[in-house]
Amino acid sequence: MWYNGLIYKLIANKLPHYLIDIITLFLRNRTFKVKLKSSLSEAGHIKAGTPQGTILRPLLYTVYTADFPVNNHITNCFFADDTAILAQGRTTKFVIRTLQRGLIEIEKWCTLWRVAINTDKTRSVMFRKGHPRNNRQSVTFFEEELS
């Protein structure tokens, strides 16, 4: 989660300034070290994300993703930091076209709000009635064809 983007969204949602200051102090200037056997690394600075296990994490994630693209023909499903988008329709062509349009909007949102997507873990799954077609048209996400 990009800190400046989150702060912008907190301000846009009219959160009181004293709370924004507390959240900013909570997120900024965090460090980490890596321990491998008996060796400890130098401290590195955490530049994005929220600390795991904190009570604020789900709330801040919800604020950050509240403006995630919506579409009348697509259902967005969120669980923690995983997302699924679902579309249904009478024809495969309609579903694929709808999903591709939705993915383009999600790409724009992710780029604007600096959300990195691991396309290696991104999949496209098609469920349909009748006999499956081997020549199914695929969708692309960040210039990667989804399998």
Automatic annotation (TrEMBL):
Which Pfam family, any one, appears in the UniProt record?
RVT_1
Q: Which residues form the Reverse transcriptase domain?
A: 4-126
PANTHER family per record: REVERSE TRANSCRIPTASE DOMAIN-CONTAINING PROTEIN (PTHR33332)
Q: What is this protein called?
A: Reverse transcriptase domain-containing protein
Q: Which organism is it from?
A: Araneus ventricosus (Orbweaver spider)
